[in-house]
Amino acid sequence: MYFLLIGIVTLLMKYLELNPVAAWSWWVVLLPFFLAVAWWAWADRSGYTKRIEMKKMEKRKTDRVEKQREAMGMLPKKRK
User: Which of 6, 37, 69, 71 is deepest in the core (most CB within 10 A)?
Assistant: First the structure.
């Protein structure tokens, strides 16, 4: 995601001819887009994306269960 944001900013700066990006080669300006594609390909192949999604789902589940326990007054007593 960061590569994509950097790429958009540098592309906009190159298009508006703002210094120092105006003097850069187009390959340098487009490099963050290539890196973003490489990152997404690696993340999908390695299972990184799926692991992160599973962690998010597990956290939502535990938060939901804790909220329900709190609503029913079933929270465990805190130790001193």
Answer: 6
CA-to-CA distance for 56 and 79, rounded, in angstroms? 28
Q: Are 49 and 43 in contact (CB under 8 A)?
A: yes
Return the C-alpha torsion angle 36, 40, 45, 50, nearest 10: 150
Q: How far apart are CA 80 and CA 47, in angstroms?
A: 42
The per-residue b/e assignment along 27-61, b for 16 or more CB within 10 angstroms, e otherwise, is eebebbbeebeeeeeeeeeeeeeeeeeeeeeeeee
**Pair of tokens at residue 21:** 């990006």
Show the tokens assigned to 44: 């999908």
Using an 8 Å Cβ cutoff, are 36 and 4 in contact? yes
Note the pLDDT tens digit of each residue in 3-42. Answer: 999 999 999 999 999 889 889 999 999 999 999 999 999 9
